[in-house]
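Q: I'm building a small set of examples for a reading group on sequence design. Run inverse folding on the following structure and report the sequence directly after it, with nothing in between.
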């Protein structure tokens, strides 16, 4: 994962442990004070929320504990590798788009963070500026020209 993704995972884990977990415990206590737990929707909702928080904490602890962090700014390459920010142009329409290749955990397609496992990322790995790549995607086959590669 990139160093930005690692820091985000650490921050989310910190927030879950120090804030969200305590909020969930307080919500359970408040709901418990309302009386009969068998018909107490607030209590059951608070317990469900606590369970989701604990599951996410376990997942993040596993991710942070086993992460291999890549310092993207230290990479100097003219080919596309993990962590690269790539600009492609659609050879059919001329549409230009830019994305960074990141780990699955930190992927956020709407914000230009494409998981390394995606068809487009897999197609551009190892390519250079000027190369044309073909991507088999759910919408059909597309071809893109690699316009720019950077490591920031």
């Amino acid at each position: 994962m990139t160093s930005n993704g690692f820091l985000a995972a650490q921050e989310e884990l910190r927030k879950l442990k120090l804030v969200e977990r305590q909020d969930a415990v307080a919500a359970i206590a408040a709901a418990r004070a309302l009386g009969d737990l068998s018909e107490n929707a607030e209590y059951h909702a608070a317990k469900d929320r606590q369970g989701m928080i604990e599951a996410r904490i376990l997942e993040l602890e596993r991710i942070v504990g086993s992460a291999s962090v890549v310092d993207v700014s230290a990479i100097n390459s003219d080919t596309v590798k993990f962590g690269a920010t790539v600009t492609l142009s659609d050879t059919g329409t001329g549409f230009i788009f830019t994305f960074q290749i990141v780990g699955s955990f930190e992927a956020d397609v709407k914000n230009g963070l494409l998981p390394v496992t995606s068809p487009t990322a897999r197609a551009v790995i190892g390519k250079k500026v000027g190369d044309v790549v073909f991507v088999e995607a759910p919408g059909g086959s597309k071809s893109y020209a690699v316009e720019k590669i950077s490591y920031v």
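Residues 3-32 form the longest helix (30 residues).
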